[in-house]
Amino acid sequence: MRATLTFAALLWASVALADVPAPVVPSEVKGSVGEFITVKADCKNPVQWYAVSSGLKLFPVELLKDTKTAVVTANKAGRYELLCWTAEGNEPSKATKTVTIVVDDNGPTPPVPPTPPTPPVPPDSTFYNDLKRLYDADKSEDKQTTLSKLTGFYKALLSYIDKPNSVTVGDFRNDWQAAMSEVLGDIPADVLADCRRLIGQRIGAALGVDPEAKLDPTIRPKAKSALTEITTALDKLNTLEKRKNK
């Protein structure tokens, strides 16, 4: 029976004779369970990433502004391997590079000033208030981990809204749904379901119902404003929860 080469073995074999410099990446990057961990590569050409270890999820790079940055997450503590390489023309880099992602059980503790200032109340805080009410009503045990994932996901989506390849409302909706399935697909349907539905309704209201509508200077700013409101509310609620459980 023919032996089957692993993905890594095939990749090493394919780049062994190339002369293109490999990306420069840190040997190790640390983060926490459920949070988005950023890995940056120093390279003049576009970078390809591959999550070698099972349990390490790679945010779709095509949805980020720059392929030289990878965003990963893991649901369990441990050490994970992330592979990257590049190419110039039809010639791949002379070697792949491996980054070890070290994930621990403890999320970062936000600094607490001696006398925390009262955050300013925006003119319209209805969305945040509605989101917090739905979050507080949710009885799921792992809702804080899910909240952290949602925060990172929608921050990345906020960056993606400015990419020129999102030409129509339908394009953006398809990319948004595909990325959500890939990155957040393991979240149980009942965990923060009402919060996720509210977020979807807020984005939908900004985009409109016509999938063929162009993301023109009218619709794109509305979508960006909605995503900014969503990420601000999620970030505020996430920080509040971390301080509460400190």
Describe, in short, the structure shown:
Helix 2 packs antiparallel against helix 5 and helix 2 (126-137) crosses helix 6.
Which features characterize this protein?
246 residues, alpha+beta, Immunoglobulin-like, 2 domains, 5-stranded mixed sheet, 3-stranded antiparallel sheet, 6 helices, 8 strands, 39% helix
Low-confidence stretches: 1-18, 108-113, 118-124
The helix fraction, in percent, is 25-40%
Count of individual helical segments: 6
> What's the average pLDDT?
80
Q: Biggest sheet, in brief?
A: 5 strands, mixed
Radius of gyration: 20 Å
Which structural class best describes the helix and strand composition?
Answer: alpha+beta
Q: Tell how many strands the DSSP assignment holds.
A: 8
**Element-level helix/strand string:** HEEEEEEEEHHHHH
Structurally, how many domains make up the residues? 2
- Estimate the global geometry from the Cα principal axes: flat
Report the end-to-end length measured between terminal Cα atoms. 56 Å
How much of the sequence lies in strands comes to 15-25%
